[in-house]
Amino acid sequence: MKIYTKTGDRGETALYGGQRVAKDDARVSAYGTVDEANAAVGMARAALQTDQTETDQTDLQTDLDATLAHLQNALFDVGADLATPLDSRYRANIAAIDEADIRHLEATIDRYEAGLEPLQAFILPGGHPASAALQLARATIRRAERETVALARHDQINPHVGVFLNRFSDLLFVLARAVNTNAGHSETRWHVKGRDRPE
Questions:
Q1: Which helix (H) or strand (E) covers residue 73, if one does?
Q2: 95-145, pLDDT tens digit by residue?
């Protein structure tokens, strides 16, 4: 099968089940942004894997990679959920997001946050390349959440998806902090204009 199908050359794409919609349809925008976030999570994984060899990876690095791999798969689940209308008979074929998925994210947030210093101020993205990539993924997921809210105004969607994306962005923020802590990068706080920002 060739990678190019030419079926989208006129600005349309197919939802799961074959329904044709415009490529700028709200549903396509939402799951497209989820895919974008997944790519940023992949960048974070790649940065962590090139950091050290397998023989001298820390337990936290190994755990982080497993967590990020799980999250990448979960984002494909979200994409499939958004790409399949609630009235489609094909929903029986997907693993729809549910409350258990949300609880898993919350438990993962709590587990990683327990190893971090309490946050005292807003911090700037940066530090370790993997941390910066996770912050990019976090901001992208926030956009996906906004687009999902917009989609839900005129089309029925799985209500768990929006909650899942909200928790997901929180988890990415915590993981970005965990990466920097593990790598020995200090966090850079936001300096407010006219108050404590160095000139």
A1: helix 59-82
A2: 999 999 999 999 999 999 999 989 888 888 999 999 999 999 999 999 999
Instruction: Look up residue 89 and give its amino acid.
Output: R
Task: Give pTM, 2 decimals.
Answer: 0.88
The H-or-E segment that residue 81 falls in is: helix 59-82
Host H or E run for residue 171: helix 159-183
Q: Which amino acid is at 147?
A: E
Residue 121: strand pairing partners: none
The three-state DSSP-derived secondary structure of 84-146 is: CCCCCHHHHHCCCCCHHHHHHHHHHHHHHHCCCCCCCCCECCCCCHHHHHHHHHHHHHHHHHH
Distance in angstroms (rounded) separating the CA atoms of residues 190 and 121 = 7
13 three-class SS: strand
Give the Å distances, CA to CA, from 148 to 24, 77, 81, 96: 14, 15, 11, 15
pLDDT in tens, 9-40: 566 666 666 677 666 688 999 999 999 999 99
Report the alpha-carbon distance of residue 42 to residue 136 in Å, rounded.
Answer: 11
Q: What is the length of the chain?
A: 199
Structure tokens of 123? 């911090």
Query: What is the Cα–Cα distance from 180 to 59, expressed in whole angstroms?
Result: 15
Q: What does the alpha-carbon distance between residue 45 and residue 65 come to, in Å, rounded to a whole number?
A: 6
